[in-house]
Write a structure and sequence with these properties.
heterodimer, A: about 550 residues, two-stranded antiparallel ribbon, two-stranded antiparallel sheet, 22 helices, 4 strands, about 70% helix, disordered C terminus, B: about 625 residues, mainly alpha, 2 strands
C-alpha cells in the first residue's frame, strides 16, 4: 500500500474506461458487461483502498507538482468524510450501470464513456485537496452531464440540459471569484501560499474582516446552493430529472447533489466559521422553506418523476437545517442525510424508471393497481418510500433524527436579524418545528403516490405488465439492503465520519458565544455542551 | 437459568422478527409455499409468551424493574440509546400482547385460510408483533418513538392488506397520515423535553438519555427551566402521539375506517394492543404529566369527551365492526380519562381487561361475518344464536363484560375509573352517561345479530374449531380477570403489580358500584325493548322523533366532512399554490433571464450543438484564459 497512489487510481481509472469504451466492438451485451465489470471493480477497489488506508492509520494523500508558479498542484487526499462519499459514488455508479440494461438503447459507447467521465469528475471533487483542482473537477462534471441529458433524455431534453448548464455556470462564476479572492488574500499574507486546502482553510482565522469572510463564503456557497439545490435556485432540477434517463436521474439525485452539500460543509462551514455563524439564521430559514415549500410543490405534482424530484429537493433541505445548527449533532445529521438521501433517492428514481420502461408514461393519473401486477416492484417501492418518509429502522430516519435533534438543541440563533436592525423573531427551534411539518407533508405525498400508483384495482391496459427483471431486482435489492442496514445499525455509518465531522463543529461553540455576548438574556447554554471537546481529530 | 431468561429478554421481540425474515426470504426465493407462513409466526409468538412467563416466574416477589441499554446512534455529545425496561406495567403489556397475539394468530389460520395472501398476512403479523413487543420493552422515549412508528406502519400494511380495494387503500393511507400528525406533536414534544432537561441528562450515564426510569428528575428539571405554561404545552405535544394512536378526539377518524382491514387485525391491532399503546405511553411518561395539573385536566377531558362522543356514534351504527370500533374508541376514552384523573392503576387495569374482551368481541364479529358470507350489516343478520352457538355465547359474555355487570371483567376495571371521577361532577356524569350508552349499544348489536330471525341470504354456519377455540379461551379472562385481580379473592390486587409511585388500593365505592350497575341495566333494558324479542319500541320512530340528533350521530358528528373540507381547501390549496408559484414566479424569472441571454446570442445556439468536441474546446479555452489571467495577476 505504501507506494500505490490509491486515490489517483480511483480518480483516473474511470477515465481510462472512458477512453477504452470507444474502441470496443459495438455490441450491446459486451458494452454492458464491460461497464458492469469496470464499475464493479471500481467499487471493490474503493472499498479495499478505504480499508487499507484506514488500517494504515493515516489519511491518504497524494501530491504532484503541477504549475508551481501559479500555486496550483495536483493534490488529492481523503479523510473518512471523503471516503464515505467516494464509496457512495462508486456504488451508485455500479447501480446506474446496471439500471442502464433496461433503460438505455442507443449510442451505448458514447453513453458509457460519458458515465465514466462523470464518475472521474465526481470522485475528483470529493478527493481534491487543492482548490483549483477542485474547481476543475467541478467544471469537468458539466460536460458529460450535459450530454447525458441532451442525448439520452426525453422530449424536452435540450431545454433541460441547457438549463442545467446555465444554472451551474452561473454558480461557477461566483465560486471562481471567491476562489481567486481567497487565494490572493492568502498570498498577500504568505507569498508561498498555494491553492492547497491546507493553505487556504486557515485564512479566515488570520484576522480577516467578517464582511470579507461573508463575501467569500457566499461566493462559494452560491455554486453549492445551486447544486444542492436550494430554493430559489432549484428549478433546473425537476426539469433535468424529468428529461434525464433513469440511471442519470439516479446519479444526479444520488451523488451530484452531494457535491453541493459536501462543498458547503468542507469549504464554507469548515473554513469560515465566523461567516457561517453570521449567516446561519438565513440558511436555516431557507432550509426550512426548502423542506416545507418543495414538499408542498411535490404534493401537487401529477407527474410521478417530478414528484420524486421535488421530494429529493425537499429532503436536501435537511442538509441546510443540519449545517445551520452549527453543532456536532447537526453536522453529523447533514452528512448522514447525504448518505441516506443518496441511497433512497437513487432507489426512488429506479422505481420510477422500472415503471416508465413498462408503461411509457409518468402521469400518476394513468397508473393504478400496479401492486397486483408488479408485486416485486411494489415491495421495493413500499420499502424505499417508507425510508424516504423517515420510517425508523430504515435509512432516512437516523439522518432526520440527528438533524432535528441537532437543530432543536442548537443555540445558533434566537432571532433572525433583518435589514435596518429589525429582527424576525424566529428562533432555530421554531424553524425546526416548521421543518417538522415537512415530515407530515412528506408522508402525505409519498403515501398518496403509493395509493394512486400501486393500490386500487388494476387498469385493464396494464393487466399484462411483466414484473421486475433480474437486473432491476438486483439494483433495487442492493439499494434496499443498504437502506435497511443503515437504518438498523446507523452507528456503523456515522462512526466512520463522526470524529472528523464533530471536529469541524469544534470552533462554533466559541463563535456563537461571542456573537451572543451582546444579547445573553433568556438563553439556555445548550450548544456549549453539545460540541465535544475530547475529540481533536484533524480534518486536513 | 433465571439469569439467562432475564438477560435474553430482548429475544422476545426478536422471535417474531426472525419469523418475518423467514417468510419474506422464503417466499422470495420460492422455498416457502404460498400457504405455509403460519407455523413460524405462531411458534415465534408462543416462544415469546413462554419467555415472558419464565421471566415472570423467575422474577421473584420483588418485581424490581430490569433495565439494560445500548448506544444505537451517536453524534457529538448526543447518544441515542435502545434497550429494554421491564416493570409491572411493562410485564402486564408483555403478557397481554403475547397471549392475545397467539390466540389471534391461531384464529387467523381459519379466517384467512383461503386468502391467496395468507403468508403475506402472517409476515405482517410477525412484523407487527416485533414492533409492538419492542415498543413495550422500550427503555426510553426515543426508542418508544421508533417502535411507535413501526407499529403504525404495520397497521398501515394490515389495514391495506386487500390493497386492490380502493376503500382499504384509502383507509390505510388515512390511518398513517393521521398518526403522522400525532407523531409530529410527539416528536416536537420529545425535542422540547430534551431541550429543557438537557442539563439533567448531562449528569447521567449517556446511555440513559430519555430513559423512563430517570424521567422523574427530567420532568422536574424541565418544569423548572420551562415554567408551567411552556411545560404544559410540551406535555400536550407529547400527548398528541397517544391522541392519534389511541383514537382520541379529534384525531380519531382513522380508527373506524381501519375496519377495512381483515377482522383478526381489527381485534389484535385496532382493539387489544396497538391502540392501547397510547395509554401505555401516557403511563410511561406519567412523571411528566402528573406534575402538570393543567395537562392532566386536558387529558382527562379529552378522554371523557372521546368516550362520550364515540358512544353516541356507536348508538346508530349498523355495521357490526364499525359499532365495535366506536366502542373501542369509547373504552380508550375511559382509559385516557383514568390516566388524566391520576388513576394510573385503574386505567391500565381497564386496558388489560378490555384487551381480552374486546379482542374476543372482534373475533366473534369475524366469526359472524365468516358465517354470514362476508356480510357486515347487522340489519341483514339476526337469529344467529341458533346457527352459531359458541360465537353467540362468547359474544354475550363479551357484551356483559364490557357493559360492566358484576362479576365480569369490565365491571371491576371500568368501575374503578368511574369511581375515580367521583370528585369531578361533570366528568363523573359523562362517564356514567357513557356507561349507560355502552350497555345500550352493545346489547343492541347483540340482539340485532343473534336474536330474532335471520334476515340475510344463504345459510349461516358456525365457524371451524380453529376459530371458535380462541373465542372460548378468551372468554375465560373476560369473565374472571376482573375479580381475580380485584384484591378481594386471595390474589393481590392489580394495583399491587401495576402502580405509579407507591401502590395503594381504594376501598370500593359502593354507591358508584350500585349506580353503574343500575345504568348498565337501564341501557340493557332499553336495548331489549327496542331490539329484543319484544320489539316494544320501534327504533325508526325514535330516530324520526330525534331527527337532528340522529342525523348528527349518523354523520359521526361531521368530523370526516370537516377534515375533508380542510384537506381540499387548505392542504391542497397550499400544494397547488406552491406549485403555481414554482412554475410561474420562480421559473418565470429564470426563464426571463435565460430568454434574454438566448435572444441576445444567436452565437450561443451555434455553440450548443451537442457535439462533445465543441464543449471540450470551449472548456479548454476557458482553462487557458483562466491560466493566462492568473499568470498575469501573480
Amino acid at each position: 500500500m505504501e507506494q500505490l497512489p490509491v486515490l489517483s487510481i480511483l480518480i483516473f481509472l474511470p477515465l481510462i474506461y472512458a477512453l477504452i469504451v470507444p474502441f470496443l466492438p459495438n455490441e450491446k451485451r459486451l458494452l454492458h458487461t464491460f461497464s458492469t465489470v469496470g464499475s464493479g471493480l471500481l467499487f471493490v477497489l474503493s472499498v479495499l483502498f478505504w480499508l487499507g488506508t484506514t488500517k494504515a492509520g493515516r489519511p491518504a494523500a497524494e501530491f504532484m507538482t503541477w504549475l508551481p508558479q501559479l500555486g496550483i498542484h495536483y493534490n488529492v487526499g481523503a479523510d473518512n468524510l471523503s471516503w464515505v462519499l467516494v464509496i457512495l459514488t462508486t456504488f451508485l455508479v455500479l447501480m446506474a450501470v446496471l439500471a442502464s440494461y433496461t433503460s438505455i438503447e442507443k449510442r451505448l459507447k458514447l453513453y458509457y464513456a460519458m458515465i465514466f467521465t462523470l464518475t472521474s469528475a465526481i470522485l475528483g471533487v470529493f478527493l481534491a485537496r487543492d482548490l483549483f483542482v477542485f474547481f476543475l473537477f467541478w467544471e469537468l462534471e458539466l460536460i458529460p452531464m450535459y450530454l447525458l441529458i441532451s442525448i439520452w433524455g426525453g422530449p424536452r431534453r435540450e431545454y433541460a440540459a441547457i438549463k442545467f448548464v446555465l444554472y451551474t455556470l452561473f454558480g461557477s462564476v461566483f465560486m471562481l471569484a471567491a476562489i481567486l479572492g481567497l487565494f490572493f488574500i492568502a498570498r498577500s499574507a504568505d507569498p508561498s501560499a498555494t491553492f492547497a486546502f491546507a493553505d487556504l482553510s486557515g485564512v479566515s482565522a488570520t484576522g480577516l474582516a467578517v464582511g470579507t469572510q461573508v463575501l467569500l463564503f457566499l461566493g462559494l456557497f452560491t455554486a453549492f446552493a445551486i447544486k444542492l439545490p436550494m430554493v430559489p435556485f432549484h428549478t433546473w432540477l425537476p426539469d433535468a430529472h424529468v428529461e434525464a434517463p433513469t440511471p442519470i436521474s439516479m446519479l444526479l439525485a444520488g451523488i451530484l447533489l452531494k457535491m453541493g452539500s459536501y462543498g458547503m460543509l468542507r469549504l464554507c462551514f469548515g473554513w469560515f466559521p465566523e461567516a457561517a455563524t453570521v449567516l446561519a439564521p438565513y440558511l436555516v430559514l431557507i432550509g426550512t422553506i426548502n423542506i416545507v415549500y418543495t414538499a408542498g410543490v411535490a404534493l401537487a405534482q401529477a407527474d410521478l418523476k417530478k414528484l420524486i424530484a421535488y421530494s429529493s429537493v425537499s429532503h436536501m433541505g435537511f442538509v441546510l437545517l443540519g449545517l445551520g445548527a452549527l453543532n456536532a449533532v447537526g453536522f453529523n445529521g447533514a452528512v448522514f442525510q447525504m448518505v441516506s438521501h443518496g441511497l433512497i433517492s437513487a432507489g426512488l428514481f429506479m422505481i420510477v424508471g422500472t415503471l416508465y420502461t413498462r408503461t411509457h408514461t409518468r402521469q400518476i393519473a394513468e397508473m393504478g393497481g400496479f401492486g397486483k401486477v408488479l408485486p416485486t416492484v411494489y415491495f421495493f417501492a413500499l420499502l424505499i418510500a417508507m425510508a424516504s418518509l423517515g420510517l425508523p429502522l430504515l435509512g432516512g430516519f437516523p439522518a432526520e433524527t440527528l438533524v432535528f435533534y441537532g437543530a432543536f438543541l442548537s443555540n445558533a440563533f434566537k432571532v433572525i436579524p433583518w435589514f435596518g436592525g429589525t429582527v424576525l423573531t424566529l428562533s432555530i427551534q421554531t424553524l425546526t418545528i416548521i421543518s417538522a411539518i415537512g415530515v407530515v407533508l412528506g408522508a402525505a405525498y409519498l403515501l398518496w403516490m403509493l395509493m394512486r400508483v400501486f393500490m386500487g384495482p388494476v387498469f385493464p391496459k396494464w393487466s399484462d405488465l411483466k414484473d421486475a427483471t433480474p437486473s432491476e431486482v438486483f439494483v433495487l435489492a442492493a439499494l434496499s439492503f443498504l437502506i435497511v442496514a443503515v437504518g438498523l445499525f446507523p452507528n456503523l455509518v456515522s462512526s466512520q465520519f463522526e470524529r472528523e465531522v464533530t471536529a469541524m463543529a469544534q470552533p462554533y461553540s466559541k463563535m456563537i458565544a461571542e456573537l451572543h455576548k451582546a444579547t445573553p438574556k433568556g438563553q439556555i447554554p445548550v450548544i456549549s455542551m453539545m460540541s465535544f471537546s475530547k475529540n481533536e481529530g484533524g480534518t486536513r | 437459568m433465571s439469569n439467562a431468561v432475564q438477560d435474553l429478554v430482548w429475544l422476545i421481540p426478536v422471535y417474531p422478527l426472525i419469523a418475518f425474515l423467514i417468510i419474506v426470504l422464503g417466499r422470495w426465493t420460492g422455498l416457502l409455499k404460498p400457504m405455509s407462513g403460519s407455523p413460524f409466526v405462531i411458534l415465534a409468538t408462543a416462544l415469546g409468551l413462554i419467555h415472558t412467563l419464565l421471566f415472570l416466574g423467575n422474577w421473584g416477589p420483588a418485581y424490581t424493574a430490569v433495565e439494560q441499554n445500548w448506544t444505537w446512534l451517536q453524534a457529538g455529545a448526543l447518544q441515542l440509546p435502545i434497550g429494554y425496561f421491564i416493570d409491572g406495567t411493562g410485564m402486564m403489556m408483555l403478557l397481554v400482547v403475547t397471549s392475545v397475539s397467539l390466540l389471534i394468530q391461531i384464529y387467523t389460520h381459519g379466517y384467512m385460510g383461503h386468502d391467496p395472501g395468507y403468508s403475506r398476512f402472517y409476515a405482517y403479523l410477525a412484523l407487527f408483533n416485533f414492533s409492538m413487543l419492542s415498543l413495550v420493552l422500550s427503555s426510553n422515549l426515543f426508542q418508544m418513538y421508533i417502535f411507535w412508528e413501526m407499529v403504525g406502519v404495520s397497521s398501515y400494511l394490515l389495514i391495506g392488506f386487500w390493497f386492490t380495494r380502493p376503500s382499504a387503500a384509502a383507509a390505510a393511507t388515512k390511518a398513517f397520515l393521521m398518526n403522522r400528525v400525532g407523531d409530529f406533536g410527539l416528536l416536537i414534544g420529545i425535542l422540547t423535553l430534551l431541550y429543557f432537561s438537557w442539563t439533567y441528562w448531562q449528569g447521567l450515564d449517556p446511555q440513559q438519555l430519555l430513559s423512563f426510569s430517570q424521567m422523574d428528575g427530567a420532568a422536574r428539571t424541565a418544569l423548572a427551566a420551562a415554567g408551567p405554561v411552556a411545560f404544559t404545552v410540551m406535555a400536550i405535544l407529547i400527548f398528541m402521539g397517544p391522541m392519534a394512536k389511541s383514537a382520541q378526539l379529534p384525531l380519531h377518524t382513522w380508527l373506524p375506517d381501519a375496519m377495512e382491514g381483515p377482522t383478526p387485525i381489527s381485534a389484535l391491532i385496532h382493539a387489544a394492543t396497538m391502540v392501547a399503546a397510547g395509554v401505555f405511553l401516557i403511563a410511561r411518561m406519567y412523571p411528566v404529566f402528573t406534575i402538570s395539573p393543567n395537562a392532566m385536566m386536558i387529558i382527562a377531558w379529552i378522554g371523557a369527551l372521546t368516550a362520550f362522543v364515540a358512544a353516541t356514534i356507536a348508538l346508530t351504527q349498523v355495521d357490526i365492526k364499525k359499532a365495535l370500533a366506536y366502542s373501542t374508541m369509547s373504552q380508550l376514552g375511559y382509559m385516557v380519562l383514568a390516566m388524566g384523573l391520576g388513576a394510573y392503576s385503574a386505567g391500565l387495569f381497564h386496558l388489560m381487561t378490555h384487551a381480552y374482551f374486546k379482542a374476543m368481541l372482534f373475533l366473534c364479529s369475524g366469526s359472524v361475518i365468516h358465517g354470514c358470507h362476508e356480510e357486515q350489516d347487522m340489519r341483514k343478520m339476526g337469529g344467529l344464536m341458533k346457527y352459531m352457538p359458541i360465537t353467540g355465547i362468547t359474544y354475550l359474555i363479551g357484551t356483559i363484560a364490557i357493559t360492566g355487570v358484576l362479576p365480569f371483567a369490565g365491571f371491576w376495571s371500568k368501575d374503578e375509573i368511574i369511581a375515580s371521577a367521583a370528585e369531578q361532577p361533570l366528568l363523573f356524569m359523562i362517564a356514567i352517561a357513557t356507561a349507560a350508552m355502552t350497555a345500550f349499544y352493545m346489547f343492541r348489536t347483540y340482539f340485532m345479530t343473534f336474536h330474532g330471525t335471520y334476515r340475510g341470504h344463504g345459510h349461516p354456519h358456525e365457524s371451524p374449531k380453529v376459530m371458535t377455540m380462541p373465542l372460548a379461551i378468551l372468554a375465560v379472562p373476560s369473565v374472571i380477570l376482573g375479580f381475580a385481580l380485584s384484591g378481594f379473592f386471595g390474589l393481590p390486587a392489580f394495583s399491587q403489580y401495576v402502580s405509579f409511585g407507591h401502590a395503594h388500593h381504594h376501598d370500593p365505592n359502593l354507591g358508584v358500584m350500585g349506580l353503574s350497575i343500575l345504568v348498565a341495566l337501564g341501557g340493557f333494558l332499553v336495548a331489549w325493548l327496542m331490539y329484543g324479542q319484544a320489539k316494544v319500541i320501534d327504533p325508526a320512530r325514535i330516530a324520526s322523533a330525534f331527527k337532528p340528533v340522529h342525523t348528527l350521530l349518523w354523520n359521526k358528528w361531521y368530523f370526516d366532512q370537516a377534515y375533508g373540507f380542510f384537506a381540499r381547501n387548505i392542504y391542497l390549496s397550499f400544494a397547488s399554490l406552491s406549485a403555481w408559484f414554482d412554475r410561474t414566479v420562480i421559473d418565470g424569472i429564470v426563464g426571463l433571464t435565460a430568454g434574454t441571454v438566448n435572444a441576445s446570442g444567436g452565437a450561443m445556439r451555434a455553440l450548443q450543438n451537442g457535439r462533445v468536441q465543441s464543449y471540450l474546446v470551449i472548456f479548454f479555452i476557458a482553462v487557458v484564459l483562466l491560466t493566462v489571467v492568473l499568470m498575469w495577476m501573480v
